[in-house]
Design goal:
With 506 residues, this protein is α+β, with helices and mostly antiparallel strands. It is built from 20 helices and 11 strands.
């Protein structure tokens, strides 16, 4: 094919790419194939023969919200540990290794028990146990094959081998040639059946360092953690995913193994496979490798409901950094209709250079950054609508807040114009199509919606519902949730130098 006009040619090629995406979006409900195995494992599949690749994802309803008070951070820690291998992957001789692992556990327990005594702890005993632990960890190294999981996947042409823990779930991802799907099934089923949580205390220190880098010495991370803790006083959404330092320091292999047994059960997970597949063959493959993993009694659901907030909450976080601010409003989660409306409000306020807050804050030079998020810090339970950003000096966080509140008040009294509404819906459709364009993107969407909304069909229902929203809905929802008494505000302020009087008083 030749085109006499380059611009017209590019437009025609782009159209050819977009048309099948739109068609896929329109009939996605007819193309997703579901299968539930006897042990409760739910499998979602979609056939795409556009390339000889496949994206198999596994998501577990096992997030930080599910943790007990004495094991905060265990979901995230377990995610790290499941990259360490099994009885056959990551080891040179598991039977010999196990002897050393048991010795490490025993010393680690003794060390943690002594440290837990606080000021009454015997420091000489701690030093002795730390030396023994280090000695055993050195001995353990002779049996370890570092990074063998990643090396196997890379050798067989995979990309995107990763995992992530949220407050709601933990997900394991990869994309690989379709003729390597059985390799994936073999490796991942082995991870669930025969995981060996080796190098636990080494990894525990790595997580502590991750926390120091991502929270304790990071102004944005510290502000978010304190903001969520202030907004949620009862619900576990107020707890950090990574855990508090004292929690991390007391995690052990037994806690991780018990969390693995209960929360990584097949009846508490969803498997999504998108790409160049034959569904009957896939069902048989999954049955062969995962069908013998026993189901478990489902863990108790979180029943704590965050009480209604009766008054604005404000906190300051001192940090040697430029000011930042986070403003959050409590609101319901999906499938409540108001959650859909707040998705559109978020787009009106911050999506693109034509959005209201971009014009109000960035174009005027009032702020260096701004963003809005509907549905944080999780989506399985009622959550927050959040506006955050950083003022540009000499403007202050108070100036930033004032400008934001002006725009929120306009949403209550001025209907969004038809022109603006059409622009937002066009952006929504473009993003919807873009998110479904790749195997990995679609696998992610199906897995996450099935996990937090209870059905992957929310993916289709969401698009249909947002097109029914009216300007009147936006005004009503803005009036309902954007109130001072429903607001939590956290500001990052520069730590002030202590005066001489304060220093003398210490």
């Amino acid at each position: 094919m030749s085109c006499g006009h380059k611009l017209r040619c590019r437009w025609f090629v782009a159209l050819l790419l977009v048309i099948p995406m739109i068609a896929a979006a329109q009939n996605i409900e007819d193309r997703v194939i579901e299968h539930t195995f006897d042990n409760g494992l739910k499998l979602l599949m979609m056939v795409r023969h556009t390339s000889p690749t496949v994206a198999p994802y596994i998501i577990f309803k096992a997030g930080s919200v599910d943790e007990a008070n004495d094991s905060r951070g265990i979901a995230h820690m377990l995610e790290h540990m499941l990259f360490k291998g099994t009885k056959t992957v990551g080891t040179k001789d598991y039977e010999a290794e196990k002897v050393v692992l048991d010795a490490i556990d025993l010393i680690g327990d003794q060390l943690d028990a002594e440290k837990a005594k606080g000021k009454r702890a015997n420091m000489d005993k701690i030093a002795e146990l730390e030396a023994k632990l280090k000695e055993k960890q050195e001995e353990h190294k002779q049996w370890i094959v570092q990074g063998e999981y990643a090396e196997i996947y890379t050798r067989h042409g995979s990309t995107g081998f990763n995992a992530g823990t949220s407050r709601d779930w933990t997900i394991y991802t990869v994309e690989l040639p379709s003729n390597k799907l059985e390799l994936w099934a073999m490796l991942e089923s082995d991870r669930l059946k025969n995981a060996v949580l080796r190098e636990f205390y080494v990894e525990r220190e790595a997580v502590m360092e991750e926390r120091r880098m991502g929270v304790d010495t990071n102004p944005g991370g510290k502000l978010r953690e304190e903001f969520h803790a202030a907004a949620f006083r009862a619900h576990p959404y107020g707890m950090p995913i990574i855990g508090w330092p004292s929690d991390i320091s007391m995690l052990n292999r037994r806690k991780a193994e018990e969390f693995l047994r209960l929360y990584y059960a097949p009846n508490n997970s969803i498997m999504v496979i998108v790409g160049d597949i034959n569904p009957p063959e896939v069902i048989a493959l999954i049955e062969r490798y995962f069908g013998d993993i026993p189901s478990q009694p489902l863990p108790p659901a979180v029943t704590t409901v965050e009480p209604k907030q009766d008054g604005e909450r404000r906190i300051e976080v001192e940090f040697d950094a430029e000011p930042q601010v986070m403003i959050g409003y409590h609101k319901p989660t999906a499938p409540h209709f108001d959650d859909y409306v707040l998705d559109i409000i978020s787009a009106v306020l911050s999506q693109g250079r034509t959005s209201r807050l971009y014009k109000k804050l960035i174009e005027t030079g009032l702020a260096v950054s701004m963003d809005t998020t509907n549905g944080t810090p999780g989506a399985r339970y009622n959550n927050l609508f959040v506006i955050n950003g950083a003022p540009l000096a000499p403007n202050t966080t108070a100036d930033f807040e004032g400008a934001v509140y002006e725009e929120l008040e306009k949403l209550k009294i001025e209907p969004v114009s038809e022109k603006e509404f059409k622009r937002i819906l066009k952006q929504v459709d473009a993003r919807f199509i873009r998110d479904l364009s790749s195997n990995s993107g679609l696998a992610w969407q199906l897995a996450s919606f099935e996990a937090f909304a209870g059905t992957w069909r929310y993916l289709v229902e969401w698009r249909e519902t947002v097109h029914k929203i009216t300007p009147e809905d936006i005004m009503r929802v803005a009036k309902t949730y954007f109130t001072k008494s429903n607001r939590t505000v956290a500001t990052l302020v520069k730590k002030q130098a202590k005066s001489n009087e304060e220093e003398e008083g210490e």
